[in-house]
Amino acid sequence: MKESAPDVSKLDFDLRRAGRIPPLGKRRTAAGQTWKDDADGGVANPRGQEVQHSLSIVQRIVALYRKRAGTTPPRRECLRLIDGRGTEEVRNLLSMLTPPWRDHAIACVYAILLPRAKRRRLGVYFTPPHLVTHLVRRMQLFGLELSRHRLRDPAAGGAAFLVPLAREMVSIWGSQGVGAAASVERLRSRLVGQEIEPGLAAIANALLRRMLRTEFGMKSRTVRRLSLVGVGDSLRPGHAGAVEHEVGNPPYLRVEANGHQRWKAIFSDIASGRLNLYAMFVRRALDNLPPGGLVGYVVPASFLGGPEFTAFRRRVLQLAEVMVVDIVEKREDVFLDAIQDASFLVLRRRAAPLQKPHTSTASSGVLRHNGQFVDRGRATLPTDGSAWSLPGRPSTTRTSTLADYGYRGTVGYLVANRQPHLLFKRAARDRLPLVWAKCVTPDGRFDFERGQNSKKAGGRAFVRVSKAAPYAVRVPCVLVQRTSRRLTAAPVLQAFLRTHKGIVGENHVIILIPFRADAVSPPYLASVLNGEQANAALARVSGSASISVRLLESIELPCPTRQMNKRQ
Known about the structure:
The chain has helices spanning 16-19, 48-65, 74-82, 88-95, 99-113, 116-122, 129-141, 162-175, 180-190, 198-216, 220-223, 257-266, 277-288, 310-319, 448-452, 494-500, 522-529, 532-541, 549-554, 562-567, and strands spanning 151-153, 191-195, 229-231, 245-248, 294-300, 320-328, 342-349, 360-367, 373-381, 399-400, 407-411, 423-424, 431-435, 462-464, 477-481, 489-492, 504-505, 509-514, 557-558. The chain has 568 residues and is an alpha/beta fold.
């Protein structure tokens, strides 16, 4: 079913109470254009200057609490901040923030006060307000009506979504003459949240009540018993509730090995490898919503091309129309203490699953670090589970793949922190050089000593191997860094191998090995992979900074030429 052109006037938020931000005018979203405020020609709301200013203040507040992690009870301290208590320095910093950013800062204080192991186990990383605003806008384009629809946040700790949604709902109802008590009753029936951590649920409800008191002047007795966020596990049966749409930021965690088989029995239709919690939340949401219901999530971009998400991509297209796939431009300083490639995914549940859906497209763009959104066009979504391709400038010339160059890929065998007993600082008869990711220089050269002297290696650059070790590479080859947003490749030549008799790859390296006699030379292949055409092709299908062998073997490369190969 084709999507009719959305009425972008529905995007206008009345956030004057929420953050002293003027209402927005109409916007255009043609490919290559940005969200514009027609009133003053500014960038998307919230303005870039506000985003950067607010992030810096949040970081200053978090720094004041960092040393108190594990010693100060997070729930008690955050409830004090919500009530206007706390040190004078913290209160002054909070007063410099708009209400949405103030709430975000308090939620981040809760996260930083948790013991680090617990924070990682729960996936406690809260969504900044400009990401919340963008996702809700995108959902409004495809039918979300805040004045009447019911929404659920299945991972509602910190109320990053529920408080802004409640703020907008109450503002709309107030303009229609709905009183305080009636608005509170409507919130109870229109918004529902679930959170597995009791302290976070308590903080979310306290932030909600404070917003209604301070921003809308509601009396304490009117909101005293209002609790929209309950305690429970949204992945368990019986926690769904009757809603039209789901919105949120589910936890980003791979399921541990001891729980994988148990969850795989439930989520077998999306399991291509180790399950990730956020994919499980998406799958559960599509079961819980009625036909036409929207799922709007902030999720890692790893699902776009990662081989572990092959079944997930295939099943999602069977169950839903993909309306939006947007990328967050900046990896750092988006989530507290985390470097994460994030994306926005908006799905619309189909009336009935399609066993063989047609290849489709989705609206796609980039949310820049300053809050500005740039529409890039349409993402291409193959139905066979292969990588989703983001819009860009694909080559108009004939292309090849890695196999056409005569190479196959393999991930480096050795995991240093698991096999330290195999590592040595000196060469010996039964040892081969270990090539670390740092052996590949930014300009595409192989520098063994650079890897040897890197912090992770600590001089350990030789690994004990048996004579018949299948993971030892004894022919000229190409190294590629696995954890990089850009392809960075370097050739390993015969001269090095003649001296050292072979190499072993560390786990953060992909080794490309020739499998036929007429394969191109390693320097030639490395130069192709380091080129702009190969990197543009990678960017269209990979939303993360982790490159898989399967993805590398599938991207479109320029066709090899004899002349260029001879020059190498």
